[in-house]
Amino acid sequence: MRASGGAVSEHFDVLIVGAGLSGIDAAYRLQERCPDKGYAIFEGRDAMGGTWDLFRYPGVRSDSDIYTLGFPFRPWRGDRAIVDGASIRAYVEETAREFGISERIHFGHRVIRADWSSADARWTVEAEADGAVRRFTCGFLYLCTGYYDYDRGFRPRWPGEEAFAGRIVHPQFWPDDLDHDGRRVAVIGSGATAVTLVPAMAAQAAHVAMVQRSPTYVVSRPARDPLAARAARWLPAPLAEKLVRWKNVLLGLGFFGFARHRPETVRRLILQGVRKELGPDYPIERDFAPSYRPWDQRLCLVPDGDLFAAIRSGRAAVVTGEIDSFTRNGLRMRSGEEIEADIVVTATGLVVKLFGGMTLAVNGVPVDPADRLVYKGMMLSDVPNLALAFGYTNASWTLKCDLTARTVCRLLKHMDRHGHAACTPRLRDPGAPRRPLLDFTSGYVRRAAAILPAQGQRAPWRVHQNYLLDLAAMRLRPVADEAMVFETRAAAPPES
């Protein structure tokens, strides 16, 4: 990689990193609410869409409804609630073009480092672009990079893999030339990716086995929202869109709250739903009854019960137990059961990576996220002029990201009104109790525990997984609270 030297290529008032759902949302809110701010989006890949451009495996779809996953300023129109990945990618691209955001995206700019200077009240950002490391500056850095590693997925190893005569693939890197028509497939995993892959591949494969070490809660939901169709027919479009969006927000919050307060009741209802799909003779407890409570991990959503339909048809099956090894013709379970497979798909999870892998420093001192607390779910303690887009784990990602974007705009406007150049969340009591950022038992969360920032016990350091609480706090409470420190030093941007 050729270094560019010390020259600064360009200065931006706000630099957004990442051109996925949250990055496009952030750009729109800046244009809408802070039109005087010059901004750019740096995207390390050659296309926008983030998750929805990266994942190309069969059947890829969102497990959140599109009415809450979509942009509130450009609502999804149609009655299909669960939408495939290609449609979401096209929706993101169309939105960016419609609002002139595409012109602000610098593709192939992978940010590797950012250093805040208190003396200059700006970030110096280094990005790999066009075979060189180039330097930029910005007054405010906005990270919309998601939370997982695009370059590698979580991939356990098993004995005997080298003896397997078939093909092993990971869903994050789906090969274009993989033909599963008439083949026997084993999908290792029980999460959202696995329950999506199994029915999608079963439509053409000879047979698909979902091989899981332990069960996950699986809930069937209609792929189409009947209220959306009726509302579109009888109400003005803006009112219909708000009605459907809020219906889904409130139903999601209500179900999550009910699961937290009455876990055994929710468990019973979920298993009753599975029994209704698969019949009284199916061993539900073995394959679909986890040992943990509902919402200790994210639920798996299957539209129109497609996974259950594939199982009923005999084209798919669930195998629960430990894998002993690969064999030449497939997998051997510790129970002794042999699973024949021509293709093995390792839907074994993701690797958490914060900030897209970039490193942060404040006045030359490296920032370790694990040492920091999250302020309002959107900033790091003692890190100036930096925002994070981090969505909900129990609801649509975009709900929280849009709240963050609007709050960042409020913060920037407050700073301009008062002549502030920097804003920094300060933890007044360094000895205050800390809690894990994510209250989940999922494998990817446990594996990332050592690198994640923490949350506090009380606002504004408490991270609520609740849209209504966040809506009230982030829209109604002043941005100048007891935790936020403002500085009035101003610095003129360097000449390009």
TrEMBL record:
Domain of life: Bacteria
Database matches in InterPro entries: FAD-binding_MO, FAD/NAD-bd_sf, Flavin_mOase-like
GO molecular function per UniProt: flavin adenine dinucleotide binding; N,N-dimethylaniline monooxygenase activity; NADP binding
Pfam families, alphabetized: FMO-like, NAD_binding_8
Keyword Zinc included in the entry's annotation: no
Keyword NADP attributed: yes
Cofactor names: FAD
UniProt KW keywords: FAD, Flavoprotein, Monooxygenase, NADP, Oxidoreductase
Family note: Belongs to the FAD-binding monooxygenase family.
Protein name in UniProt: NAD(P)/FAD-dependent oxidoreductase
Species the sequence originates in: Sphingomonas parva
UniProt lineage: Bacteria, Pseudomonadati, Pseudomonadota, Alphaproteobacteria, Sphingomonadales
